[in-house]
Amino acid sequence: DRAALHERFADWLERTAGERLAELEEIVGHHLEQAHRYRTELGETGPELERLGDRAGERLAAAARRMRRNGDLVAAAMFLERAQGLARADDADLRLELANVQGPLGRLEAALANAEGALVLAIGSSDAGLTARARLLRLEISIASGTLDDLDPRAHSEARRAMEEATTSGDARALSAALDTLAGQAYMDGRLGESESLSRAAIDQARASGNEMLAIEREAISLTFAVVGWTSADLLLPSTRAFLERVGSYPTVRADVLRLLAIVEAMNEQFDDAVAHASESITILEDTGQLAGALLSRGDKAWVLRLADDDTAAAAELRLAVKGAQSTGNRTTSSWAACRLAQLLIDHRRFDEAQPFVEEAEKMPTAMNRTRVIGARARILAAHGDAAAPALLARLISDLDEVAYPNIKTDGFIDAAEASASMGDRPSARKHADQALELAVAKGNLARAKQIRSLIDRIGSI
Fold first, then answer.
1. What is the spatial distance between Cα 164 and Cα 156, in angstroms, rounded to a whole number?
2. Alpha helices of 18-145 — where are they, by DSSP H?
3. Predicted local confidence at residue 327, as pLDDT
4. Calpha distance 133→178 (Å, rounded)
5. What is the pTM of this model?
6. Angle at the Cα of 445 (from 440 to 446), degrees rounded to 5?
7. In this predicted model, what pLDDT tens digit does every residue of 257-290 receive, in sequence order?
8. How far apart are CA 313 and CA 309, in angstroms?
9. Averaged over 351-367, what is the pLDDT?
10. pLDDT at 438
11. Mean pLDDT, to the nearest integer, of 121-139?
12. Which end of the chain is flanked by fewer CB atoms within 10 Å, N or C?
């Protein structure tokens, strides 16, 4: 009787909800789920019970998608897990959806298991598009869990294989995912122009798939490349604020755009707004359980604070980011945050304290770390009067020729100026400081330019 009542109520709600049905799918799914559970406990079997389970699962999965769009990944995961429990046979799409929300929540072991399960099922079904998406998600989760990194040859091989599968399938979602992964690998390797081109293609494919949320997510990633690239910070400010207005209905994307807007505002010396927006980004991500994203936002908030000359607060954020990333096994974020913390400590001549963070940064040779680690080592050696300092400094100057990112290149010439000053070579120190200033001005990074002018004054007084 209870099973019948649950099912009758769900039927009535579906008939009468009209345009509001999308808001009520979790309620419909719940009642169908209860009807299925009672009938199962009574020992019923057969096609009718299977159809009831399918209906319940479809409604719960639809509710989960709406919750994901609204930024509630915890609830989305719960409803997807319930839908998975009702599936007649293992469902690759459902596993893939579940892994997609478990990953950002830090449930990496479960996410990896679901991604691998989805890949096996997709290969078995000969669905090339689904196979590509499952392969790429497994790769993404493996990188987040620390078993792979973006620059590992195996990661490149998997991404290329997924791109071939996506191209064969013609699946726009799969092509967007493959292009996005390749863009991310190019970015981490320092190939900015390639990453920007691939990112634009990923956005186009997301739009072609008809998935507006996916397209907005891809646009936010593309904005990252603009922020770290050569577009002047004053030009980025109005366009980034306009983009923020467009993503109001997608909290997770809003958090990402706020993080980037904070950097742009800090470069334009709008520090109060920058700190407020960086803090809001962290709050959104922590409130929705997205710990990995929150750690990234903490690292970028530290950069905002450094530009505002609040190094104490910046160090506190970076220590939280390093500790959090290490506790979850996220090697990429751990080494990136450690590199920034080492830079900050070296600025204050706390060389012994910086040493373990330099070593942590060296574990991941991404474009964000490579020259910064060399610069950190050169400054430590120069400050200690080590005979190896000049050779390392020469290597830094040589490697900076290949750096595509203006803020990273600026940091490199600041390190070169500081190391040269420590070695008593004032003409070289002034030359490298001038190079850093030229880069900061070209990027429109007013805050960094102001700090470099103070460095030039200090060099002149040596």
1. 12
2. 25-41, 47-69, 73-86, 92-102, 108-125, 128-145
3. 86
4. 8
5. 0.87
6. 105
7. 999 999 999 999 999 999 999 999 999 999 988 8
8. 9
9. 92
10. 98
11. 94
12. N
Q: Give the mean pLDDT of the chain.
A: 93
Give me the count of residues in the chain.
Answer: 462
Q: Tokens 């593309």, residue? A: 222
Phi and psi of 384, rounded to 5°?
-90, 5
Give, rounded to a whole angstrom, the gap between the first and last alpha carbons of the chain. Answer: 89
Residue with tokens 């103070």: 454
pLDDT of 304-349, one tens digit each? Answer: 999 999 999 999 999 999 999 888 778 888 999 999 999 999 999 9
Record the tokens describing residue 304, joined without a space: 């905002």
- Select from 381, 377, 441 the least CA-distant residue to 412: 377
Q: How far apart are CA 69 and CA 61, in angstroms?
A: 13
Contact residues for 17 (Cβ-Cβ < 8 A; gap 6+): 23, 24, 28
Give the residue among 436, 437, 429, 432 at the shortest CA–CA distance from 460.
Answer: 429
Please say whether the beta carbons of 230 and 443 come within 8 A.
yes
Whole-number pLDDT of residue 462: 67
Q: Are the C-beta atoms of residues 237 and 263 closer than 8 Å to each other?
A: no
Q: How far is CA 59 from CA 74, 80, 312, in A?
A: 17, 10, 50
Q: What is the percent of the chain with per-residue pLDDT over 90, rounded to a whole number?
A: 82
Tell me which long-range contacts 447-454 makes (C-beta under 8 A, separation of at least 24): 447/266, 447/267, 447/268, 447/269, 447/271, 447/307, 447/308, 448/267, 448/307, 448/407, 448/410, 450/269, 451/307, 451/309, 452/410, 452/414
